[in-house]
From TrEMBL, chain A:
Transmembrane segments: none annotated. PROSITE patterns: MHD. The keyword Magnesium does not apply. Its main location: membrane. It comes from the Eukaryota. It is found in: Membrane, Coated pit. One of its GO terms (biological process) is protein transport. Residues 182-440 form the MHD domain. GO terms for cellular component: clathrin-coated pit. This is AP-4 complex subunit mu-1. Belongs to the adaptor complexes medium subunit family.
Automatic annotation (TrEMBL), chain B:
It is found in: Endomembrane system. Residues 36-546 form the Clathrin/coatomer adaptor adaptin-like N-terminal domain. GO terms for biological process: intracellular protein transport; vesicle-mediated transport. Pfam families: Adaptin_N. It comes from the Eukaryota. Its main location: membrane. Residues 596-619 are annotated as: Disordered. This is AP-4 complex subunit beta-1. One of its GO terms (cellular component) is membrane coat. Residues 604-615 have a biased composition (Basic and acidic residues). The keyword Protein transport applies. Keywords: Membrane, Protein transport, Transport.
Length: 441, 803
């Protein structure tokens, strides 16, 4: 049961406030923000309480989504609801930001009114909601010449028009109705990689959390069939000899997914509702089919001038035709480090000392498989001792692997039935993020 | 000048209002904003243009959500309500519902429009009207609302029925004093069979609120089976609600129970965490008497819980980790093989990292200890100081079972020479030594030279304690103390000064030649110049003690250095599931303060004197406070009957010295029985027979009682619980007679003695206390106020006049 619900910007501006039960006043909002700002550290605890009132909040899109409730309510339910609400707002407004919430507040009030009554969640299904929601989203996207670049001369098809622009999936779901917008469907396979590599180069932990997300802009779509790799297997026992078996440990499906063809043909059948939904989630621990995408070979030395020298050699172990983007390597450095100089292997890379994080961050915009990059950092640390070397702790990497899945999961086909009248577009995208990629030194 | 500015501002605002834009109105000058809006709302040109009218209303709502008081526009908005435009209607309702309570008279005008809308052929309009009619929250409107609500229950559109059902709950809460209309309740019960699952779930919710005083909605066998059969039709929110309500149902036979359980099995491994948690909660409440079934359910829930731990939503992940901690209390081995799942991510927030470390600490076994320590070592240099200190104390905690490896890491960390790390390491070492005396050699070597990097008072206190206790083994001890003594004038921390006094006197006992001179200086300073009375009192105490001779001092000050018996007791016994089942799937587990990181320091005698953190982790285990123990001698009728069901120990009972003295005098007979025991000065324990009054309904087992007592250093050698149900006199409350053997480490101040006529005992008790922890005692007796201070001094003086 939710007593009140409000959305705050990171600066504490009231964006949305709705009182469902009239049990407490509006001052709870300022109490919450005071509590948040009074705490040091990066994020306040999820549950906080003030007198009899309990605040549960999540952070999404840089905003605080807060519900007040009673002690005995289920944290799972409330957190899930807030997440779902954020997803709904994202679906309806196109994107999730302070600006989009501010511009679409009428729409959000309308949504809230239908979603929650007297503090009880009524429905969060976009199939049901689309009958009730009348307000149209105000899109915050400014006009950009960039969008025109996809249109060929005299409307001719260009090479680019076969690739969906990255912004295609961030538009409100309802605009399609009036604008006669394209009926599109996006299927994303998103994997999060969390890896720990020991100082001796041994992979100590390698976990993948993956999900298949469907974002549907079709007003009416009766059935969709998603074909996965045929050799896809679940659990350890089913591992079949050789071949490119794709294996996961655990797998769970959205309740709307019908699995009658899954056992034999690895086909998921579902009727997607408008908006975004997670169709399938899976995990794999400790048994990646491919070596982890990056290896790091660090060397740390002290030179005669009392400086600390860090040599880093970063090897990308992907197949040559794939590449990683937005690679960022964060190396913790000793506390007193005042300045540093660097030698990087190409001019597009950059490097920065972040004193508040006590780290040197090396960013590489793009790195193709099979290549090796190197960097040398010379750090000026006053009062450098041999113990300071210990402070050069585990290196963290963040990166993005487009068009690659760590488990090897692929979507064979995507069929809509009955065949849609008019033009419809189907997109399949793969991406692997580094959730946490740590290399110990 | 200012006027000009204001004019400019207004000019600008006028421009803004003219344009249909999303410019945010400034907070200042809200009156102008309201005036401007009113002008627009009453403008007939605007009213005739649907789009402009709607946009003006939009601006009103925007101003409202930004905190501008627009309540004065109420009557204009009421007029705007009568429109065919549904979007406009919805916007106006948002406004009306927020301000209706301020304008009850004007709200009457709305009710007509609303009632008319309830007849509308469009079900959406009907449900909208009905919902907002009940959301106005005006008791004066109840009579107008009842009729449309009754009609709404029989509406052919499900969306109207959903609203009408909840409407009755709202109506009832608006006028709780009124009688419940039995016809409505019956109608709601019959609507449980409605075809729409949301209507069914809403009926449960509404009945639960309306029948709150009778214990909520009644679930009998047909209803329970009906709900179970329709569970699959509901969405996850409905499922959670049904599962929650079903906790009230008790199956009549074992067969029925197992039928229900097998029906629910699929929900137990649901990919939706709320459903999974609600199902497990139901399992736990259905079969408390079937431990094997419960265990099987917990095993089964492991996979979905672990999956939730890897959720993309940090908050969800946090909730899952907190609940895993609960499970581990009963099944320590449940996650042993999956320890890697609890390795901290690179960019995770500190609060998740700390919880994960607490879990890792629990999961340590012979196979994974190397991996876990390796991982924890990496966190010690984390840029967040809280995280790094939590990691260090986690290592110390593991050190109780694997001391060599952990000490190696801890000693290595000292080399970093960073103040927060060194401080945490020294504190951790002190706690470790208290439990594992075999570590003392390594620790004595390691602490040499630490004082240079230590900055905070907690760390320095820990160092001083170690120096005092192991003065003869740390070669540099006197010289380190000298540095402290030379700087005592600029020392700000009370705790450090008192610890310094104790440590110096202790070192004097083993190395008199090196220490004598500096102790003289320290005592001189503390007695002559120190302004804080607690420090001065303690110095005086030691001064007089030394006058009594070195042997006497030794007796008082050289207490035990360690308490290995605590080490034996580390492995907490696995709790019964019933212990935490009631808090599963509530907010409580998410709120608990870090249990383990705090209790790591509990083993040490002199820790937590001045800033004892509120130790809330105990609150749901035990509740018979020490103050109650003290009160027990007094007339039971004086005490208000405290119907607190979960027992909890209060660690810092508020008891004024005067009150304490009065109570003490009232109970001489209790103590006289133990005379023989306490006059023996070598005796480490104090035996007391206590009569603790606590509620008869004492769910918690002796085991958990014992565990909770342990946490505050009360160890029980013999523990008997006798329930005398003395109904005639105490009514609901039983008399529990416990024989506690109190270990006088931490609890001392509450159990010490005043009262002149019992002087011999008082002195021996005091001596015992002093031997344990002088700082604790006088610190607790002297929280700063003058009266309390006098109390402490009297004690100190008394002990020497009698000695």
């Amino acid at each position: 049961m939710i007593s009140q619900l409000f959305i705050l910007s990171s600066k504490g501006d009231h964006l949305i406030y709705k009182d469902f039960r009239g049990e407490a006043g509006i001052d709870v909002v300022s109490v919450f923000y005071e509590k948040v700002t009074a705490l040091p550290g990066d994020q306040p605890p999820v549950v906080m309480s003030h007198k009899d009132l309990h605040y549960v909040h999540i952070r999404q899109g840089g905003l605080y989504w807060v519900a007040t409730t009673t002690q005995d309510s289920s944290p799972f339910t409330i957190i899930e609801f807030l997440n779902r609400l954020a997803a709904l707002v994202k679906d309806y407004c196109g994107s999730l930001s302070e600006k989009s919430v501010q511009m679409n507040f009428a729409l959000i009030y309308e949504l809230l009114d239908e979603v929650v009554d007297y503090g009880y969640v009524q429905t969060t299904s976009s199939d049901v909601l689309k009958n009730f929601i009348q307000t149209e989203a105000v899109s915050s996207k400014p006009f950009s010449l960039f969008d025109l670049s996809n249109v060929g001369l005299f409307g001719a098809e260009t090479q680019q028009s076969k690739v969906a622009p990255s912004s295609a999936a961030t538009r409100p779901i309802q605009s399609s109705r009036e604008q006669g917008g394209k009926s599109q469907i996006f299927v994303d396979v998103i994997e999060r990689l969390s890896v720990v590599i020991g100082s001796n180069g041994v992979v100590m932990k390698a976990d993948v959390e993956g999900e298949i997300r469907v974002k549907c802009y079709m007003p009416s779509c009766s059935e969709m069939r998603i074909g996965l790799n045929e050799e896809f297997s679940i659990g350890k026992s089913q591992l079949r000899g050789y071949g490119a078996a794709v294996r996961v440990d655990e797998c769970s499906f959205h309740q709307a997914v019908r699995l009658d063809e899954f056992d034999n043909h690895r086909i998921l059948r579902l009727c997607p509702s408008q908006g975004e939904q997670t169709v399938m989630q899976y995990q794999l621990s400790d048994d990646l089919p491919t070596p982890p995408p990056f290896r790091l070979f660090p060397t740390i030395e002290r030179d005669n001038g009392g400086r600390l020298l860090i040599y880093l050699k970063l090897r990308c172990d992907l197949p040559p035709k794939s590449a990683t983007i937005n690679v960022s390597v964060s190396v913790p450095v000793p506390k007193g480090c005042v300045s540093f100089s660097q030698e990087l292997s190409s001019p597009e890379q950059s490097c920065e000392l972040k004193p508040q994080n006590r780290s040197v961050v090396w960013t590489v915009p793009r790195c193709t498989g099979g290549t090796q990059l190197s960097a040398v950092f010379k750090l000026e640390v006053p009062g450098l001792s041999s113990a300071s070397m210990l402070e050069v702790g585990p290196v963290g990497l963040t990166f993005e692997l487009p068009k690659v899945t760590a488990t090897g999961l692929q979507i064979r086909f995507l069929r809509l039935s009955p065949v849609q009248p008019g033009p419809s577009q189907r997109w399949v995208r793969y991406v692997t993020h580094s959730d946490s990629y740590i290399v110990r030194i | 000048m200012e006027e000009e500015e204001e004019e400019e501002e207004e000019e600008e605002k006028r421009k803004c209002c003219g344009v249909l834009s999303v410019v945010i109105m400034p907070y200042l000058g809200s009156e102008d904003t309201v005036r401007e809006l009113r002008r627009a709302l009453t403008n007939p040109n605007v009213q005739s243009d649907l789009l402009r009218y709607r946009n003006t209303i939009l601006k009103v709502i925007r101003a409202m959500s930004q905190g501008v008081d627009v309540s004065s526009l109420f009557s204009e908005m009421v007029k705007a309500c009568a429109t065919v435009d549904v979007v406009q209607k919805k916007l106006v309702y948002v406004f009306l519902c927020s301000y209706a309570t301020l304008n009850p008279e004007l709200s009457l005008l709305v009710i007509n429009t609303l009632r008319k809308d309830c007849q509308d052929p469009n079900p959406m309009v009907r449900s909208l009207a009905l919902r907002n009619m009940t959301n106005l929250r005006l008791p004066s409107l109840v009579e107008y609302v009842e009729q449309p609500l009754t009609a709404g229950l029989r509406d052919r559109a499900a969306c109207v029925r959903r609203v009408a059902v909840l409407g009755w709950a709202k109506l009832y809460n608006l006028q709780t004093h009124s009688d419940i209309d039995a016809a409505v309740v019956n109608e709601l019960y019959s609507l449980l069979r409605d075809t729409d699952p949301v209507v069914m779930v809403n009926c449960l919710r509404a009945l639960d609120e309306i029948l709150k005083e009778e214990g909520g909605v009644a679930i009998n066998k047909p209803i329970a089976h009906h709900l179970l059969n329709r569970l699959k039709e509901c969405d996850i929110w409905g499922q959670c609600e049904v599962l929650r309500i079903l906790q009230r149902y008790r199956p009549q036979s074992e067969d029925e129970l197992f039928d229900i359980l097998s029906l629910l099995d699929a929900s137990l491994v649901s990919p939706h965490p709320p459903v999974m948690a609600a199902t497990l909660s139901l399992f736990l409440s259905l079969c408390p008497a079937l431990p094997t079934v419960t265990l099987a359910a917990l095993e089964r829930v492991r996979a979905p819980l672990l999956a939730t731990c890897g959720s993309a939503s940090r908050e969800m992940m946090f909730a899952a980790i907190c609940h895993i901690q609960l499970l581990l209390r009963s099944l320590p081995g449940l996650m042993g093989a999956h320890y890697k799942r609890f390795f901290c991510g690179y960019a995770e927030p500190a609060y998740i990292k700390q919880r994960k470390m607490q879990v890792l600490m629990e999961l340590v076994n012979d196979d994974n200890v190397a991996m876990i320590l390796d991982e924890l070592k990496g966190y010690c240099t984390d840029v967040n100081t809280d995280t790094s200190q939590a990691a260090i104390s986690a290592i110390g905690r593991i050190g109780r079972s694997y001391s060599d490896r952990c000490l190696e890491i801890l000693t290595g960390l000292l080399g970093l020479k960073q103040d927060h790390i060194t401080s945490a390491v020294v504190q951790t070492m002190r706690d470790l030594v208290w439990v594992c005396p075999q570590c003392s050699d390594t620790v004595c070597l390691a602490v040499e030279g630490c004082e240079e990097t230590l900055q905070d008072s907690q760390g320095r206190q820990a160092l001083l304690w170690l120096l005092g206790v192991y003065g003869e083994r740390v070669s540099s001890a006197p010289y380190t103390l000298e540095v402290f003594i030379d700087g005592v004038r600029s020392e700000t921390s009370l705790g450090v000064k008192m610890e310094l006094l104790t440590a110096t006197v202790r070192v004097l006992l083993c190395r008199p030649a090196e220490t004598q001179d500096m102790l003289g200086r320290l005592l001189h300073y503390c007695i002559e110049e120190e302004t804080n009375m607690s420090v001065r009192d303690q110095a005086l105490l030691y001064y007089r003690l030394l006058h009594c001779g070195i042997e006497e001092t030794r007796k008082v000050l050289q207490g035990r250095r360690s308490d290995p018996s605590l080490g034996v007791l580390i492995g907490r016994p696995a709790e019964p599931v019933g212990q935490w089942a009631c808090s599963f799937n509530t907010l409580a587990p998410l709120k608990q303060v870090a249990v383990e990181t705090e209790s790591t320091s509990r083993g040490s005698p002199e820790h937590v004197t001045f800033d004892r953190k509120p130790n809330t982790d105990l609150s749901d285990t035990l509740n018979c406070g020490q103050d109650e123990t003290v009160h027990s001698g007094s007339d039971p009728d004086v005490l208000p009957p405290s119907p607190v069901v979960p027992l909890s120990l209060s660690l810092s009972p508020a008891l004024s010295p005067a009150e304490f003295e009065r109570l003490w005098l009232q109970r001489p007979h209790v103590l006289s029985e133990q005379d023989s025991v306490k006059t023996e000065e070598e005796e480490d324990y104090l035996c007391m027979e206590e009569r603790v009054r606590c509620p008869e309904i004492l769910h918690c087992s002796t085991q958990s009682l014992q565990a909770a007592m342990q946490l505050v250093n009360i160890q029980m050698l013999a523990f008997t619980l006798l329930f005398h149900t003395n109904r005639s006199r105490l009514g609901k409350y039983g008399l529990v007679s416990t024989k506690l053997t109190l270990h006088l480490q931490d609890v001392s101040p509450q159990y010490d003695c005043t009262g002149n006529h019992r002087r011999p005992r008082a002195s021996s008790l005091l001596r015992l206390l002093l031997a344990r922890s002088p700082a604790t005692m006088s610190g607790a007796l002297n929280p700063g106020s003058d009266t309390v201070h006098g109390h402490g001094r009297r004690l100190a003086e008394m002990s020497f006049t009698t000695a």
